[in-house]
Amino acid sequence: MTTTDETQAARPAGRPRSARAEKAIIEATLDLISESSGLGELSIEAIAARAGVGKTTIYRRWSNKEDLLVDALAALKAPLPALAGRSLREDLVACAEVFLQEARNARSRCVMNIAMNETERHPRLVQRIHQATIAPRRAVLTALLQRGIATGELRADLDVPVSIASLIGTVVWYVRGFGPDQEDLPEGTAERVIDHLLVGMSPR
Amino acid sequence: MTTTDETQAARPAGRPRSARAEKAIIEATLDLISESSGLGELSIEAIAARAGVGKTTIYRRWSNKEDLLVDALAALKAPLPALAGRSLREDLVACAEVFLQEARNARSRCVMNIAMNETERHPRLVQRIHQATIAPRRAVLTALLQRGIATGELRADLDVPVSIASLIGTVVWYVRGFGPDQEDLPEGTAERVIDHLLVGMSPR
DNA sequence: CTGTTTCGAAACTTTTGTGTATCGAAACGG
DNA sequence: CCGTTTCGATACACAAAAGTTTCGAAACAG
């Protein structure tokens, strides 16, 4: 038993790795992915320069580019909307608001692009994005719609898969018509889309 | 007046440029764009190799990469659906079928990706895509929906912009759940989506 | 046949990124 | 204070691609 047996195995001695540098590397990576399109244009040198870090510090932690990408995208948390549960419409609007903001945010959008385009080049990465980002959203919406069917707020014969595609796809495609990061998008856009789609999803 | 005054100005003498080579270059460019993601990964050398052409032949016609891309994407015709005009539903299904096929076709999909992601890097190119591909589709759908409103097949207070986004966005997002080029997508998908959306767009 | 231009191929220079190694300085444990 | 490890910076060899030039062959006009 050594004297330093606080909680875990003893620290391996020597200068500890800088958590600040690690953070800076992840941030720089996400920045550069957002600015570029496609993972092929991403260079380790650019990441090191942007992060104010030596290349050594990167290669010491990640042996190849994909490992770094996996960690970087994992750090990009996916904030699912808090579902108040008061009414179906209210929860759907909350979801739409989240999707809308993500569609306008460069960092969130690049995750979608990677999932759509890099399936063959980086299957491991895409698979991880699916289970970390896409599957949870799909699950939330599925549960939400089935709850709505149960409470009678939605048609009993509702086509759930198509409804999910319409909820996400419509928001994404609608905001696409406006500038990516501009501020000229009106206020009640989420409500407007949901109210439009809800007409066809409600009973009678 | 020279003897060769057939229709236009006389040919400038010398070996004429091979139309076949030009075609091969355009085809190779489109192939490589489809396979890659992002325009930055595209290399002139790869295009020349794929086309079976010397790099000289490319640089002689296009001074830079973007000029080549503009011409290549212009060659990618956008087949708007033939609108039979018998019923609104029939025409909408025809549109949806076209969008669906395009969403699964690598060459068409890459146009969408470029339009969404390369706005800052290639504004000229994106602007051209907008006026050559996106605007016509938007116009067709707008006319179609307004005709439907006039004939009473659609609600008089229909939100046309949101409807357009829902028609395209839902199809694109729905087929996205299946494999990109797989064959496992069911037959009546276009009808299924249109019938779902039409519920909320019809009167009463 | 002669002059001109394009053809594909190859050599060339320059730029950019990869991955490794080396350097002195700094941060820790003991 | 000492050994160890990380720090950022820099240099290095290697590869890929950009863009230019040169080359012999081929296609066309006159």
UniProtKB/TrEMBL annotation, chains A, B:
Annotated HTH tetR-type domain residues: 19-80
Superkingdom: Bacteria
Nuclease is among the record's keywords: no
Pfam families: TetR_C_11, TetR_N
Keywords assigned by UniProt, alphabetized: DNA-binding, Transcription, Transcription regulation
Residue ranges flagged as DNA-binding region: 43-62
SUPFAM superfamilies tied to this protein: Homeodomain-like, Tetracyclin repressor-like, C-terminal domain
Protein name per Swiss-Prot or TrEMBL: TetR/AcrR family transcriptional regulator
Organism: Streptosporangium jomthongense
